[in-house]
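Worked example

This section walks through a single chain of length 205. The input is the sequence exactly as stored; nothing has been trimmed or padded.
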Amino acid sequence: MSAASAPENEFSDVGTSSVVRRWVNISTGGHLSGVSWGTGPAEFVLVAPSGGQARDLDAVALALDRPAIVLDLPGTGRSSGPATTPRRAGRAVAEAIASFGPRAQVWAGVGDGATAVLSAAARAGRPVGLLLLVDPDLTDDVLALVDAATNPVAVARTDAGPVSDSLVEGLRVRDVPVTDLGVPASGLGEALAAHLRRTVTVPTS
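Given that input, the structure is written out below as tokens.
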């Protein structure tokens, strides 16, 4: 069961009233927290990395200017703990997306939040238009999730990020498109938002 809070002082600095903090109880216990931006059903899901929190992606959500939900992973931000691996967090993330963004067609994970997105999509029981992995940690385990994905997968990388040119070649062999955002990780805001807006033209089948 999910709940939403009224706009609170937490968001007094973001320059919009169209933002609320939400929580959903998850089947494994505890709750997952997210920040809902805009009005109407969420079109985009963003998952923050385990070393950060949903509020770290405020600049992306503001620049996106479309209905979106930004999720904390278990044990981070305002989600209850304990923290777990991003892959194991997939179940909780899938349940949160089913509650907060059941029609969202673009799911994007940043850093190891990308692993959680891949894992969540495998559990979702519905097609997703695009899984966008932003600066993912492309370990063998994560590449196995990419190979097993039944939804379209794409990668976006920042300057000097973890996705090296050699990894790009391996992704291209897998027919996974890679986009250079042309900004450092600290400047994702408008660059990632613009890329996300372009993805709405990606076919959903």
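What to look for: Strands lie at 2-4, 19-25, 31-37, 44-47, 68-71, 106-110, 130-134, 153-159, 178-184.
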